Structure formats: C-alpha cells, structure tokens
Amino acid sequence: MRTRYVIAVALLVTTALVGGVAGPAAGAQPTTESPTLESPTAGSSVHQTDDACGFPLEITDATGTTVTLDERPDRITTTNPSAAQTLWEIGARDRVVGLTQYAAYLDGADERANVSAEGFGVSVERVVDTEPDLVLVPNASSASTAETLRDQNLTVYHFSEATSIEDIAEKTETTGRLVGNCEDAAETNEEMNDSVAAAEERTADLDRPDALYPLGDGYVAADNTFINSIMEVGGTNNVAAAEGDGYPQLSSEVILQTDPELILVTTSDAAILEEEPYASTTAGTEGNYVVMNVNYLNQPSPRSVIESTTTLSTAVEELQTESDGEDGTDDGTNETDTDDGTNETDTDDGTNETDTDDGATGDEAPGFGVVAALIAAVAAALIARRP
User: I want to staple 294 with a disulfide (CB 3.0 to 4.6 A). Which of 244, 325, 341, 346 is the partner?
Assistant: First the structure.
C-alpha cells in the first residue's frame, strides 16, 4: 500500500462563497478537450497585431450582439472574477473600477467598487454606479444579465463558456483586444502555453493516476469542463470523464466503481476523504490527495491554468516518486513547495447543465459561482505524511 502523503498548496486568506447561480456544490469551471499548444485563435476574428488593436472597434459577442467601442475603455467593470483576473494579468488592472466580491483576492481589489448583489449574482445598480465604459460579462452571468445591463445603456461584452484551455486563450486574446492590450494578452497566452507544455513534459513518462475532483453531495467535475483540462494536462486520468459532461451528480456506487487513486481538494484538511464513499476509495485508504488553490482551480483564466497545472503535475510527480521509493527504487521522501504565495477566492464562469450517465443521481451540475459553503482559507505549503 502506498505511503500516505499530502501535497499542500497555499490557499488564501479570503473566503469562497457563491456568485451567480445557487447550487449544491463548490464551484467548478467548464472543461476542455485535449488542449494544444498552438496559438489558440482558431475561429476567432481577433488578431493580435498592433494594427488590429486600435479603436474604434466593432466585435460580436456570445449573444450575437455587435459591441462598438469608439475609443479605448478607461473604466472597466467585471461581473465575474475570471475576467478580473485576466485584466490583472494583461496589465489593465488600473482601469478596473468595479468587480465582484469573489475577486477580492486580487491585489488592490479592495480599492474597486464591489458590484456583487446582497444575495447571489451581480447588482445592476452597483454596476451602473461605476459608470463603466465597458462591462465584461463571463458565462456564469447569464445572457439575460448582459441584456439587463444593456438596457441601462451600458456597453457590455458577454463571453461564451470557456470549456478548454484553448477557450481561455481565446478569451484572453479577446479581452486584450477589447481593452487595447493585445500585446500583453499575447504574452500572457505564451506564458500559459509554456506552462502547459512544461506540465505535460513533467509527467510524460509517468503513470497517470486515476483522479477525481469532488465538489460535494456527489457532484464531480467530469468531461468537457475546464477542470477536466487541468486534470489532463496535470498528468491524471479524470475518472469522472467517462460518467458524463459538465458537473454530474454521481451515486456512491459509481464513485466507488471509479475508485480514484488521487483526489483533488481545496482545503488543507481534506475532510472529504474521511467521508463515504471517498474514504473507501484507493485515494481515501492510502491518503492520497493534492490541495489545489481554490481561486486558481475554479476560475478559467491564464493564471489559473499556469498555477493549477504546475501544482497538479508536481503532485503527480511526487506521487510517482513516493510509489517508486516504496518499491525500493527511490528513498520516497521528497518535499515540494508548489505554492506561489498568496491567493484565494472561488466562483466563476460557466453555469453548466449536464446530462448524467450511468449511476448519476442528478442532471443539473453546479457551475462557477456555485459554492456549497464558506471555505475558511488556510496558508500551507507542505508535503506531510499522515499516520
């Protein structure tokens, strides 16, 4: 039996709550097909050249609406943290005037207006009060939200659901085009693609452990989701991918049948491994789990891809080393710090409705912005054995 171990990555000091649509489980993001490392602009009319980054601009969003910007927007409001995170990455943070409470982990976010509603979702009144030149509305906010904001004479761009790393790259490119930061967006995508390549190389010669990301109440991240892409690039085999698309709710029997060897969690105590059916899986009996940063894992943005694939692929490498050590081919004790420092929050893009497959007990899956409970943030960067 494999020696129990934990790979803990820093979780942040803010709280992760619901945003957008209420649901039964912690937020998850749409996944992807197998990502490629080529320039992910296929099918997009956006081109990252200096000539193409000027204004005025006309561009069609996911609702089929032509969005017109006569000049570079100087006041930008976002309705989901993934959009805010992207703006921070591409050097446009100084022009952000409004964001949701779930982007509170971003440096300087407390200096911007909070446009979250008192309950779930976004307050139209608070968005209007920011007097934005442009409102970025990722998929967790519905098309009707975009239309409601347009009814207030606001310029709104609504993104389609990001279900792959390629989608994230295209979204980043589009965001760069919308705010006039095309070169920064291209550099961000290059960094992300380099990190994806490094993660894949790190685990290329290793066995791929069967893995699962449970969201609570039997909900899991399955096929055609952003989370699935992260898991594939990180060197694991997502056992839920064969059970359906999106975020299906699986029965205990099906979870036991999938028998994951590794479970992804977002709290350092990994309490879910003490619960059934997870406690009776190989991951539960051997104590194999990796703590992922909830802000990064659940938000479809370039930094999320960079940090999550690095964390997961490093964990897979450590798991393989641990296993080899117990077979007498290694000493089996590696300590790895896969944390980047400070960050936290969750919820974002992509309310997913999914068809469940054999053994599923529900047909509607949670999307980003759906969190079951308040997550207390902990800072830890360690690999420790559990007795």
Answer: 346
**DSSP string spanning 155-187?**
-EEEPPP--SHHHHHHHHHHHHHHHT-HHHHHH
C-alpha–C-alpha distance, residues 197 and 199, integer Å: 5
Whether 280 has a pLDDT exceeding 90, the answer reads yes
45: in domain: no
Reported as a pLDDT band with limits 50, 70 and 90, residue 327 is low
Q: Are residues 235 and 159 in the same domain?
A: no
What 8-state DSSP symbol labels residue 360?
E
Would residue 324 count as lying in a domain? yes
Report angle CA 279, 212, 34 to the nearest 5 degrees.
Answer: 170
d(CA 72, CA 74): 6
Overall domain count for the chain: 2
Global pTM reads 0.74
Radius of gyration over every alpha carbon of the chain, rounded to an integer in angstroms:
20
The pLDDT tens digits of the residues spanning 119-154 come to 888 999 999 999 999 999 998 657 888 999 999 999
Give the integer Cα–Cα distance in Å for 243 and 260. Answer: 13
Residues 20 and 102 in one domain: no
In a domain, 200, yes or no: no
337-340, long-range: CB < 8 A, 24+ apart: 337/381, 337/382, 338/7, 338/9, 338/310, 338/311, 338/314, 338/381, 339/9, 339/10, 339/293, 339/381, 340/10, 340/307
β-strand partners of 219: 216, 249
Type of residue numbered 53: C
pLDDT in tens, 166-221: 999 999 999 999 999 999 999 999 999 999 999 999 999 999 999 999 999 999 99
What is the DSSP pairing of strand 156-158 with strand 134-137? parallel
